[in-house]
Write a structure and sequence with these properties.
Blueprint (H helix, E strand, L loop, with lengths): L1 H17 L4 H17 L1 H8 L5 H15 L3 H12 L6 H16 L1 E8 L5 H15 L2 E8 L7 E5 L2 E4 L2 H13 L1
Parallel strand pairs: 1-2
Antiparallel strand pairs: 1-3, 3-4
Length: about 180
């Protein structure tokens, strides 16, 4: 199943980069369609039902694309997924596409967890620091964990940078016990 998502994601990443599309807009369109599928059992049934004629499925897709203002290339990907009965993989394909485009465009995804809500200036400063350390452009996702007591924990891929009070107290405890 993962190979299906990888195959379509890599192929669509080629399209996005080859046609110089706005990657964020293309991904946003896929997420909007995925959201509609999650909300509507009827839509899922129509697109996944082999008894419904392909032309009818595409007319429904075209109506959605027109209403939502979705890119034609995204519409074409969805038509392929519908025709090949791969609609159920849309969420995984979109997640994999994000990763694929990030890798090709030199972005790193950073998960930043802090003890309190950070202001915009603090978020930008943390992102800049992570970019400096990793040497890559960063897409940061922020979360809260009050148990950190203070500071932040940054995870980029499998690397963790622990600048939290909790982490420092843990290091002190380990040093004392050894």
């Amino acid at each position: 199943m993962a190979s299906v998502a990888n195959t379509y994601a890599r192929a669509f990443a080629d399209v996005v980069l080859g046609a110089r599309l706005d990657a964020n807009r293309a991904i946003g369109g896929l997420w909007r369609i995925a959201g509609l599928l999650a909300e509507s059992t009827e839509l899922r049934r129509v697109w996944e039902n082999p008894a419904v004629p392909a032309e009818q499925k595409r007319r429904l897709l075209d109506a959605i694309v027109h209403r939502e203002g979705i890119e034609p290339h995204v519409r074409n990907l969805m038509a392929v997924l519908i025709d090949h009965r791969r609609v159920q993989f849309l969420t995984r394909i979109t997640e994999q596409l994000e990763k694929e485009l990030d890798a090709r465009l030199g972005f790193a995804e950073a998960h930043i967890t802090s003890a309190r809500e950070l202001g915009d200036a603090e978020k930008r400063a943390l992102e800049a620091q992570v970019e400096k350390v990793t040497g890559k452009k960063v897409r940061a996702r922020f979360g809260l964990d009050p148990s950190l007591l203070g500071g932040a924990v940054v995870r980029v891929g499998s690397t963790i940078y622990d600048g939290s009070v909790k982490g420092q107290l843990e290091k002190i405890r380990e040093a004392i016990s050894s």
